Structure formats: C-alpha cells, structure tokens
Amino acid sequence: MKAEHIAIIGGGNLGASIAEGLVHTQFVPPEAITVTRRKTNLILHLGELGINISSNNTSAVSEADIVIVAVQPKQMHDVLLEIRPVLDPEKHILISTAAGFSIRDIQDVVGTKVAVMRAMPNTAIAIQQSMTCIATQNSSEEQKEKVTSLFDKLGKTAFIEEELMESATVLGACGIAFAMRFIRATTQGGIEIGFEADLAQLIATQTVKGASSLLLEKSRHPEQEIDKVTTPRGCTIAGINEMEHQGFSSALIKGVITSYGKIAKLQD
What we know:
Blueprint: E1 6-9, H1 13-25, E2 33-36, H2 44-47, E3 52-54, H3 57-62, E4 66-69, H4 73-83, E5 93-96, H5 103-110, E6 115-120, E7 130-136, H6 141-152, E8 155-159, H7 165-192, H8 197-218, H9 222-228, H10 235-245, H11 248-267
Parallel strand pairs: 1-2, 1-4, 2-3, 4-5, 5-6, 7-8
Antiparallel strand pairs: 6-7
C-alpha cells in the first residue's frame, strides 16, 4: 500500500534520515517526497536525490497524504498551528516524532478528526535498520496498515501504548548512542591489544552486527548465545566476569533509567 505523497516537516537529522531511507526503499518515488526546513541550503543533499525541498510547510502538507512532523518539541505547537488550516481529516495522516508531545497535545491544536500517530524511530532509519515504535488512538485499521507498511520498509515496527513512548525513546533512540559507545569502547580495547584503529572498529562493529542478527533471526535469549562461547576456564567467561565485577550490566541499566528519568523530568 503506497502513499501518494509524503511531507516531512523538519529536515533535521531525523527528518532527513527518514527521507533518505524512503528513497532507498522505493516506497514512493523521490519526487513524491517533500522535506521542509527554514534554511533549505542545509538539505540540498536531499534535492540531489530527487526529493523536493522547501521552506513552505503549508504547501508541502497540502500536497501530501502522510505528514511526518519531525521538529523539536519546543517547535511543535507553532508548526501545528501553521499547518492546521490545510490539514484535511479525509485525506491526511499526521505522524509526530517529537518526544514529550502527546497525541492529546497534538489534537488540542489540530482537532480530533485528523488521524494522529506518534512514531519513535532512530537514525538507523537512513539505512532501513530503524526500530520504530508507534502509538495511536483514533486511526483506522487501513491507516495503521499504511503507516506500518511505510516504517516496515525502514526497519522493524511495533505498535505500543502511548504511555510507553518515552520508554521507547530511551531504548530505541537513545539506545543507538549507547550501542555506539559500546562499539567505541570495544574498539579502544582492541587498539590496546594490538590492532590499528580502523581494523579494531571494523571487527567490533561487525561482531555487534552479527550478535544482533543472531538474536533477531533465531529469536533466542542472549544468554543462550553467550553460553555457546563461554568454555570452562576460557577467555570469554574471564572477560565477562571482569566486566560484571566492574559494573558493566549495572552501568547500562542505570544509564537507561537515568535517561528515562530525564525525559520524565522534562514532562513535569
């Protein structure tokens, strides 16, 4: 099921990544995508892909049937006010990627008749490897299918209760940075034991990719795969135990909870 035209309001890191991902999946042709940004010179690279670039939000929305608002939370209210006059409940699906801005907050501005969804992808959407969590309250099954088919082209998709959107932000979006920091630390360790930086990073990155693929494709618990490589008195178990003695798992868990606490505090 294809959309006739997609407008992405906000061509920052996430908005641009969504546009790039859509072009590579051929979900719609590039000329059926419009990305807006006040300073269009910052998204000229999207124009080179055949995507329409503009600074006119209302014009972009008027021509679209799916509208993805990918601006910062502090900009949401003003952007929604701007596009409200051209939103058509019979035509548009409105998707927000802004953390901390609820469906009710959106409906308070645009009304309750427009189908509204919240989506939390991550920047891996640019290479079709995002984990995107979606919440909605007033969308039809057909509208859900249309949005699911879009984000499924860009990675994996899960519908969740809206109350879990902030948790999804931490686990899925902040999680990209957590994973990157793990890879960087592993790379640094690799350098210490003899590898050049580029090769150490390649080995660390491909190893993490392989570990993730094992879990995704075999649907197993991580400990099952860990047990396969931890032999008695071996180097793997020695390394894991030392990391745990230093608080490895505990630090990761505390990091996730601290990030969630930061979002919760911003909500107050």
